[in-house]
Design brief:
Elements: E1 7-14, H1 27-41, E2 44-52, H2 62-72, E3 78-80, H3 84-87, H4 91-104, E4 108-111, E5 116-117, H5 125-152, E6 164-166, E7 174-176, H6 181-192, H7 197-206, H8 212-220, H9 225-228, H10 237-245, E8 253-255, E9 258-260, E10 268-270, E11 277-279, H11 289-307, E12 330-335, E13 344-349, E14 365-367, H12 368-382, H13 388-404, E15 419-425, E16 430-435, E17 441-444, H14 458-471, E18 479-485, H15 495-511, H16 518-533, H17 540-547, E19 551-554, E20 562-565, E21 575-581, H18 590-606, H19 617-622, H20 624-631, H21 633-658, H22 661-679, H23 692-704, E22 709-712, E23 720-726, H24 730-741, E24 746-749
Parallel strand pairs: 1-2, 1-3, 3-4, 16-18
Antiparallel strand pairs: 4-5, 6-7, 8-11, 9-10, 12-13, 13-14, 15-18, 16-17, 19-20, 21-23, 21-24, 22-23
Length: 759
């Protein structure tokens, strides 16, 4: 018999979809049932928490979270909901709270309508959770079907954009908003006359025109208190640009640009443009096509000017940093002191400017670098693989870091291929690495001996790198690492090398008193791959990831390679660098890669050297018959390639220094032909039906004609192809290659001057 005082928090929830079922599901009905139950069984009702209009699939509801915080105070020892579905409809989350979280925190959970008591044996509970989950999925499906039908019929089922409102008779039809439509027309007029987005925003602020979000909060839509806090009194560049790019103002409906990754996730992903729902002439336009195109033209010109301006800086805190005093967005600024030092970057409140209608009294500036350090330090304190909430914070930090490095830019078609991580200490003396989309990998730092059974695994790479840093004096301790990557695995763009360098950079930063160089980090990665992973790779891929930039490497002394940057801007030469993903995976081709250095060493040995570099070309020619007998013809052809390509590299560097891009392209094509014919690293031995790299090269050469250059990328056999494409042909080339290879298989890249780095 329970004799302690029963102090209960009541929780009520109703979604918008459930509201149609009437009083039986209403908040009022739930409150009546719970109160009567408490009165009947002598339960003291301490506090009531409500989420009205919130889906059961999302547990980040404000009322639910407020209840959890209230429970932490110890003022209640019980939670009551009308039934299990009111707690939530996500099977996993509902079960977690009802059967684990509440009992582990000494909280009794009751759902009278489902006959559920957390202190009893609830044999039917799994089936109840499952049925609630099915309801959630079915409701989501029905909502999607309804929305898709309306979209396909040209109905506007999203929030009306600035300049429009929903018609009074139907909520699916847009009509001009008499208050804001003139503002939209004025924005297009100014843009069509050549004014930049920034100058338009300034004009609107000077005229005290209410910006879109403030207008929605104060005049049109119902906002939560949290949503209203994002409101600003000022227009900015981004807001103006978003209006100028929106084709809804031409009278067309364009919906379905993004979707949730699943019914249980709030995360949205972009939908390919060909899948967007586009319906012409569904409502009254606010601008003509001619003016829209003219505005777009001038906007593009102004954007290019800003993008090439060295004084222009993108803040990674855009949209997430707000003034603690007035709630306005923080904007990026900078100053130079008499040109004597580097530009001083800071964040400042938007309402601190002289243009602000209600000037902020705060008056402080936050140094950009100081804020970055605070964020980095706090993330390191918080990160833990045992806490999903913290993992979400980490993923958000990684997204922001990606943005700071320059993410995909649709305007320039340039994208970055990056591998980024967040790290924090743990007390388990383990290296725990969680790569997005892969299983958690755990290494015991007390056991760093190579293991035969671990070869060709991530664990082998991690254990090898930890051993290498220990040998260099590192005092390793427990560390959690979460990795996010858009480097295609097994595609020939060195995903393993990037991973090795990433781990090396982290271990170097966290545990080395005297930091090792980027070259040493690359060597550690190679050693781990050779000795622990079991792949006899060279050092070039690791060096490229670690050092960055366009570089030349002289491996005359493998222990002390000579690395030199090559200053070159292909865009100034009218060239774009493309990496073409053939779709073939080289993960199982280790033997093919290993055969190349092995055969070249065999040829060198016949000629009296250890490597071909030790053997003069004339000696090789003199020993050619003997090399063929002892090593085979393929080994001889590969040696011919190595000798010729060594000479070509020096010529390529010279042409880049001289700005002779025509000769450079000829040398690239020449090297590519030699790779296919002599080195034979385009098609694996014996492959007949699957020759993806060869087809990719042939298609690229066909599309380019006598322009640009094409060659196999990296180690070859599978993976990717490298192409230098004239900028004027880029759009046609990209479309043509992706029509053959598949969407997203042509990557237009820029090369950053920095490799492995700590943010």
């Amino acid at each position: 018999m329970r004799n302690h005082i029963q102090l209960a928090d009541a929780y009520y929830r109703l979604s918008d979809e459930e509201r149609k079922y009437g009083e039986s599901a209403s908040i009022t009905n739930q409150r009546t049932i719970v109160r009567e139950y408490c009165e009947k069984y002598g339960i003291i009702l301490v506090e009531e928490f409500v989420d009205d209009g919130f889906s059961g699939g999302n547990f980040e509801r404000p009322g639910f979270q407020a209840m959890l915080e209230h429970l932490k105070t110890g003022k209640a020892n019980m939670v009551i909901t009308k039934d299990l579905s009111r707690l939530g409809r996500d099977m996993t989350e509902s079960s977690h709270y009802a059967e684990r979280y509440f009992p582990e925190h000494g909280i009794r959970y009751l759902a009278p309508g489902s006959n559920f008591d957390s202190e009893d044996d609830n044999l039917m509970a799994p089936f109840q959770f499952a049925m609630n989950d099915v309801y959630l999925r079915d409701t989501s499906r029905k909502v999607k079907q309804t929305l898709n039908t309306k979209r396909n019929n040209g109905k506007y089922v999203a929030c009306p954009p600035y300049g429009y409102r929903k018609a009074e008779r139907t909520t699916d039809q847009l009509v001009p908003d008499e208050n804001t439509a003139p503002v939209v027309k004025m924005i297009f007029d100014m843009a069509a006359s050549g004014q930049s987005c920034r100058s338009i925003a300034l004009r609107l602020n000077e005229a005290c025109v209410m910006p879109p979000l403030k207008y929605r909060v104060e005049c049109r839509d119902n906002f939560t208190e949290r949503g209203a806090q994002r409101m600003s009194d000022l227009w900015n560049y981004t807001t103006v640009k978003r209006i100028l790019r929106n084709r809804v103002y031409l009278g067309h409906t364009l919906l379905g640009k993004s979707r949730k990754v699943s019914v249980k996730s709030k995360k949205k992903i972009k939908v390919p443009e060909e899948e967007w729902v586009f319906t012409k002439n569904t409502h009254e336009p606010l601008v003509t096509q001619e003016k829209f195109d003219l505005a777009a033209h001038f906007m593009g010109e102004n954007t290019k000017a800003n993008g090439t301006n060295p004084a222009f800086r993108h803040s990674i805190f855009g949209g997430i940093a707000y003034c603690a005093c007035c709630g306005a967005a923080m904007c990026s600024g900078g100053s130079v002191y008499n040109g004597e030092r580097e530009k001083y970057w800071y964040l400042v409140c938007n309402n601190l400017t002289s243009r602000a209608q209600h000037r902020c009294a705060h008056g402080a500036r936050i140094r950009y670098d100081d804020l970055m350090e605070v964020v980095r330090r706090d993330l390191n304190k918080l990160l833990s693989f045992d806490d999903d909430g913290i993992r979400a914070i980490t993923e958000s930090a990684i997204e922001q870091a990606n943005a700071s490095l320059g993410g995909a830019d649709p305007a320039t078609q340039i994208e970055n291929i990056d591998m980024i991580a967040a790290a924090a200490p743990n007390d388990k003396n383990q290296l725990r690495v969680q790569s997005e989309g892969y299983d958690l990998c755990v290494i015991d730092l007390n056991d760093l001996e190579a293991r035969k059974e671990e070869e060709n695994t991530t664990a082998a790479l991690l254990r090898g790198e930890c051993a290498a840093f220990t040998q260099r004096g590192a005092k390793l301790a427990g560390l959690d690492i979460y990795v996010s990557s858009n480097v295609p695995k097994g595609s020939g763009v060195s995903s393993s090398a990037a991973f090795e360098v990433l781990i090396g950079v982290i271990l170097n930063d966290c545990f080395m008193t005297e930091k090792v160089s980027p070259i040493a980090i690359a060597q550690i990665g190679q050693w781990a791959e050779n000795v622990y992973f079991g792949k006899p790779c060279g050092l070039m891929d690791q060096m490229a990831s670690s050092v960055g930039n366009i570089i030349t490497i002289d491996f005359a002394s493998p222990a002390k390679p000579v690395v030199e940057p090559v200053a070159v801007d292909f865009s100034k030469a009218g060239l774009a660098l493309c990496i073409l993903d053939s779709g073939a995976d080289h993960a199982d081709l280790t033997d093919e890669y290993a055969a190349i250095p092995a055969e070249c060493r065999a040829v060198a040995a016949v000629c009296g050297g250890e490597v071909l570099r030790d053997v003069p070309f004339e000696t090789f020619l003199a020993k050619l018959p003997e090399c063929r007998r002892q090593c085979g013809d393929r080994a001889v052809l590969r040696a011919f390639h190595v000798y010729a390509d060594n000479d070509r590299v020096a010529k390529q560097v010279a042409t880049l220094h001289d700005g002779d891009f025509d000769t450079f392209l000829c040398l690239v094509n020449e090297s590519g032909r030699s790779s296919w014919e002599y080195l034979q690293n385009v098609i694996p031995a014996g492959y007949k039906e699957h020759q993806e790299v060869g087809v990719t090269i042939a298609a690229a050469k066909h599309l380019l004609g006598d322009k640009g250059a094409v060659r196999v990328h990296g180690g070859g056999f599978a993976g990717t192809v490298q192409a230098f494409v004239p900028v004027e042909m880029l759009d046609e080339f990209k479309a043509g290659m992706e029509a053959i290879l598949g969407e997203g298989r042509c990557h237009v890249l820029s090369i950053r001057p920095e490799g492995g780095a700590v943010l």
